[in-house]
Automatic annotation (TrEMBL):
Belongs to the universal stress protein A family. It holds the Pfam family Usp. This is Universal stress protein. The lineage of its organism: Archaea, Methanobacteriati, Methanobacteriota, Stenosarchaea group, Halobacteria. Gene3D superfamilies: HUPs. Residues 6-145, 161-296 form the UspA domain.
């Protein structure tokens, strides 16, 4: 990558979902020699004056849990790669806002998060936190589903061999593709570019044949652009134009190819041949068992 990944932020609430995100974050940090920042956010409501003792007690409990959470991840880092620098931090606040602000202030390059956390009065719902971070962050977010690995999977078992890079030809997808190719070069991975011809749009068109032709042409242009980037970077690449709803096409391709990572933009634009990339990305993140590297359109080029 022309601009290296120097720092990775791993938010945690000590849930299984958060630890799944931590595994991927640590593995990526080890492969890129990035510094690791581990953050746990204590989300305690303001007391009304009548519940001061109860709030103080809850805060103390949550802060103790947060200490345990960051220490667990820090120990995972040290066990896998003792040469990595680790910073642990506990903050009070609204989780997604605190994560976003920390990433901005520390100039974090990538945030790695689980897509599901532990619910209950003493835990944040990490899934909703992750979605809010995805929608608002200016930093790429690696969203890791809880079923991406088995409990026995160690950090050293995490693979980054095959990437799926869906595109709709939009500016957002193009930026995500740049990241996908750059990551693949750094990690010596293969890129599979994918474009979906959404037939529902064809059936609604006044001129279905012309619409189908336009969509297919748009797909060829989008795939060729990724091929060219990959060839220039010396990255192995394949390209496919498939037919069907974008989310279904992406999920099917990820499953059939057995990819290790899906790289997508979080914002696209509507128009001929372009699905609304943000909505598609969120649905893929919710449904897939494959980690999704989500790139906002505001992210700096890699």
């Amino acid at each position: 990558m022309s601009r290296p990944i120097d720092s990775i932020l791993i938010p945690t609430d000590d849930s299984e979902g958060a630890l799944a995100g931590a595994k991927r974050g640590i593995a990526l940090a080890s492969r890129t020699e990035a510094d690791v920042h581990v953050l746990s956010v204590v989300d305690v409501p303001h007391d009304s004056g009548e519940l001061t003792d109860a709030v103080d007690s809850l805060r103390s409990t949550l802060e103790a849990d947060a200490e345990d959470a960051v220490e667990t991840v820090a120990e995972m880092v040290s066990a896998h790669d003792p040469d990595l620098d680790v910073t642990t931090t506990i903050k009070r606040g609204t989780p997604f806002q605190t994560i976003r602000e920390y990433a901005k202030r520390r100039e974090i390059d990538v945030v790695t998060m689980g897509t599901k956390g532990r619910t209950g009065l003493d835990r944040v719902l990490l899934g909703s936190v992750t979605e809010n971070v995805l929608r608002t962050a200016r930093t790429p977010v690696l969203a890791v589903p809880p079923n991406a690995d088995t409990p026995e999977t160690g950090v050293g078992d995490v693979a980054f061999d095959d990437f799926l890079v869906p595109t709709d030809g939009s500016d957002g997808a193009a930026i995500a593709a740049e990241w996908g190719v750059a990551l693949a070069k750094r990690l010596e991975s293969m890129v599979h570019a994918l474009y979906s011809v959404d037939t529902s749009r064809v059936s609604r068109a006044q001129e279905p044949d012309e619409m189908l032709e336009a969509l297919e042409q748009n797909g060829e242009v989008a795939i060729d652009a990724i091929r060219e980037q990959a060839d220039d970077a010396g990255v192995s690449v394949s390209g496919t134009i498939a037919t069907g709803p974008p989310v279904d096409v992406i999920l099917t391709a990820a499953s059939e190819r057995g990819v290790d990572l899906i790289v997508m933009g979080t914002h696209g634009r509507t128009g001929i041949g372009q699905w609304f990339l943000g909505s598609v990305t969120e649905n893929v993140v919710r449904q897939t068992d494959v980690p999704v590297f989500c790139v906002p359109v505001s992210a700096e080029s890699p």
